[in-house]
Each structure stands twice: as structure tokens, then as C-alpha cells.
Amino acid sequence: MTATKNSRFRRRRQIPRWGDVLAPLLDVIFLLVIFLLVSASFDDTQLIEIQLPKARGSAEAQPSSESVDPMILVLMEDRKIRWRDQFHTLEDLLPLLDQMPEESRLRAFTIQTDRNVDMETGLQVLGELQNLGWSSVEFEVSPLTDPSGDLEPRLGEG
């Protein structure tokens, strides 16, 4: 009776089935695949090969920076604009600027003013220059000056 009693209480060693072992492993693999698909960024840009032109000529053919007239416009308090040592209104100046060649519109345009000039005037001039095709416009605002001093165009001061 002892032999049967021991065999009855003895636990049988169960052999694991493949499905029981693989189910948690497959869950982890699917979670990793989903994580990689969500976090991956797919780059669909295409490269186009281009042939860039070679430069010809010499540096002497290009105008030097000293010979180029600076593009400086001075705003005055009375809404007058000084351009190339002449006073204009905005309406008078626009046709002059419109007649300038297209390559000059690639150069930087500088608007100089002092703190007494209305901001509205500066923004109006800036908008008109943008409409005419200037993409690079710089503002130079000088500190408050005495009323007798005249605002002269200057290069390189900000």
C-alpha cells in the first residue's frame, strides 16, 4: 500500500507544450514590431543630381564694393525721404526704385532713421520695398539727436 500511496501523491512531471512556451514570446515580438513601426520615420526624399555650371572670367570683371553705390534711404521726421542726396516723398520715390535693374534688388537695402520718426512711416516704406522685390532690408535706428543735427547716411553703423 505504501508503493501505491507514494505513486498517487507523487506529482507527475508535466511536459510543457510548445504553445504554452511560445505565446508570451510571440506577444513580446509583436509588441516590439508595433513599437518599431510607430517610432520609425521613413525617408521618402529623392535626390536629384544636377550639373552646376563652372565659373568663368576673372575677379577684375566684377565691380568692386567701393564702386557700387550703397542702397541707403534716410527717413526724416516730416515724412520726407532722402535718397542719393535728394529729398522725395514716398510716392515720388517709388517710380525711381521701380526703374532700378533687377540685379540691384538682390543687394541689401538700408533704411536709416532716428527715434523721432513714426514707426508707421518705416513700416510703410518696408512694405513698398517688399512689393518692389527687395528681400533684404535693414533698419538702422540712431539714438535721439538734437533737432539742429541732420541725419547723414553712414555705412556700417547700427
Short description:
This protein has helices at 2-9, 18-39, 90-98, 119-132, and strands at 72-75, 81-83, 86-88, 109-114, 137-142. The chain has 158 residues and is α/β, with parallel strands linked by helices.
If you had to describe this structure to a student in words, what would you say it looks like?
There is one protein chain. By secondary structure, the chain is an alpha/beta fold. Helix content is 34%, strand content 14%. It has a domain at 69-142: 2-Layer Sandwich (Nucleotidyltransferase, domain 5). The chain is built from four helices and five strands; from the N terminus they run H-H-E-E-E-H-E-H-E. Strand 1 and strand 2 form a beta hairpin. The longest helix has 22 residues, at 18-39. The protein starts with a helix and ends in a 16-residue tail after the last strand. The mean pLDDT is 76.
How are the SSEs ordered, and which strands pair?
Blueprint: H1 2-9, H2 18-39, E1 72-75, E2 81-83, E3 86-88, H3 90-98, E4 109-114, H4 119-132, E5 137-142
Parallel strand pairs: 1-4, 4-5
Antiparallel strand pairs: 1-2, 2-3
Helix pairs in contact: 3-4
Key structural traits:
158 residues; alpha/beta; five-stranded mixed β-sheet
Continuous helix count: 4
**Proper CATH architecture of the domain at 69-142:** 2-Layer Sandwich
The helix content is 25-40%
Principal-axes shape call: elongated
Q: What is the H-and-E element order?
A: HHEEEHEHE
CATH class of the domain at 69-142: Alpha Beta
- What is the mean pLDDT? 76
Strand content: 5-15%
Supply the helix-strand structural class.
Answer: alpha/beta
Strand order of the largest sheet: 3-2-1-4-5
Rounded radius of gyration (Å): 39 Å
Largest sheet, in brief, is: 5 strands, mixed
By CATH, the topology of the domain at 69-142 is Nucleotidyltransferase, domain 5
Distance between the termini: 109 Å
Return residue spans where pLDDT drops below 50 for at least 5 consecutive residues: none
Total number of β-strand segments? 5
